[in-house]
Write a structure and sequence with these properties.
With 401 residues, this protein is mainly α. It is 48% helix and 2% strand. The strands form two sheets. The protein has a two-stranded antiparallel sheet with strand order 1-2. Strands 3-4 form a two-stranded antiparallel sheet. The radius of gyration is 20 Å and the shape is globular.
Length: 401
């Protein structure tokens, strides 16, 4: 459902998108990484969506020069989603599918084969999350599976997660952050189990990464077992305390004070449960997902730890997340929450200009200009375009669809 946007607000949003296009275009030749989350691929995703909305916004020559550079440098990339091949290949398949009449199923077959070899490890020995690890291959595989058979790669993902699953009992399965993981909270005792509850780095992301395997008959049954057992485990981590600030912590056993955002928190847990509920035809997951989502609709910027604007954990990112929640579970309060954060973000921009869109750097404890998809201008632009047309088909690269 489209957000209610009057003509004056629409003009403000369109003007801001146009300004962001110019800023992102200015960074095309200087951006250091070709990656999706913080590099050239993310820039191109935003510019492509902007061109769909208005041909005049995007310099077609610059766009195609940058795209050619990305394609020419694929062989030099590391494999992961964040800065590497998995994210860049996802973008190429996204663009490949944008024109169904000209779709080329063979375009990325070499990358399919490369990933089939790269993921052929049992037990899986790398990161299990999606930014640098196994889950980050799922968006590319799922996107390819819309048009081509991807049984081998889907099997690699399911087998990898089976090989490192922690079976609490016959009904509950989860995954611990590996001892060597850069995303561990507890780096002093790396032998202690640590169950991360964020979509970016934890169990919800693993559940979301497994969902595409339900669409392939050869992986469906195994994926279903993992998804049901891990969803049931995840729901056991929810608190129902009357004084709770959130339904979930950032890690199992933590205080239930997680932020509002994509990376961590209740909202993308609710979204993952809703998607699992639809995929498995389990209304109980949808009921719990809606309950969790609605608990959060009245949390403000202070309560939600909102300190910038981007997709990862910023106010415009929340517009996209609430839109996705409303697409999965239509509810007036979810639609209103998306509208509230859109208005909040536009007010911030009117008050402070471009600095309102700067990304907060936790190391420097300062807000800084950021052109990227996950934290900066490109992602903010995508959120604003989505607020106008409700087209969030790109969110599969963040395990949100």
């Amino acid at each position: 459902m489209l957000l209610p946007v009057d003509s004056e607000k629409k003009h403000k949003i369109q003007t801001l998108i146009g300004d962001l296009v110019k800023l992102v275009e200015s960074d095309l030749t200087s951006v250091m990484s070709n990656g999706l989350l913080s590099g050239l691929a993310g820039h191109l995703l935003f510019l492509y969506r902007a061109s769909e909305c208005c041909d005049d916004w995007v310099d077609e020559v610059q766009f195609h020069q940058a795209l050619e550079r990305l394609q020419n440098e694929l062989a030099e990339q590391t494999p992961e989603l964040s800065s590497g091949l998995a994210g860049q290949a996802w973008l190429l398949e996204y663009l490949n599918q944008s024109n169904s009449e000209e779709y080329d199923p063979e375009l990325l077959e070499e990358i399919d084969s490369f990933f089939a070899a790269a993921l052929d490890f049992t037990p899986w020995t790398g990161e299990v999350e999606m930014v640098l690890g196994l889950g980050g291959y799922s968006p590319y595989i799922a996107r390819r599976a819309k048009q081509t058979t991807q049984t081998v790669l889907l099997d690699r993902v399911v087998t990898g997660y089976e090989s490192v699953a922690v079976n609490i009992n016959e009904q509950h399965t989860t995954w611990s952050q590996p001892a060597q993981s850069v995303f561990r909270f507890d780096k002093d005792d790396t032998t202690a189990p640590e169950f991360n509850l964020g979509l970016a780095h934890g169990v919800p992301g693993i559940i979301a990464a497994l969902l595409p395997a339900l669409q392939d008959e050869k992986t469906k049954s195994r994926a279903q077992t993992l998804i049901i057992n891990s969803c049931d485990w995840l729901l056991e981590q929810q608190t129902h305390a009357t004084d709770r600030a959130a339904c979930f912590g950032s890690c199992a056993g933590d205080k239930h004070e997680s932020r509002l955002g994509w990376c961590y928190g209740d909202l993308t847990i609710a979204l993952t449960l809703a998607r699992a509920g639809h995929a498995l035809d389990k209304p109980c997951y949808l009921d719990r997902a809606l309950e969790i989502a609605l608990f959060n609709v009245d949390r403000d910027a202070e309560q939600g730890h909102i300190n910038d604007a981007g997709l990862c954990h910023g106010f415009f990112g929340l517009v996209t997340i609430y839109q996705r929640l409303n697409q999965e579970m239509p509810h007036p309060k979810l639609l209103q929450a998306a509208q509230t954060w859109l208005d909040y973000g536009l007010a911030k921009y009117e008050e402070s200009g471009l600095k309102a869109l700067y990304s907060f750097n936790g190391v420097d404890q300062d807000h800084q200009q950021d052109f990227s998809f996950l934290m900066g201008y490109a992602g903010i632009g995508l959120a604003l375009i989505g607020a106008l047309d409700d087209n969030l088909d790109w969110t599969d690269c963040l395990l949100m669809s």
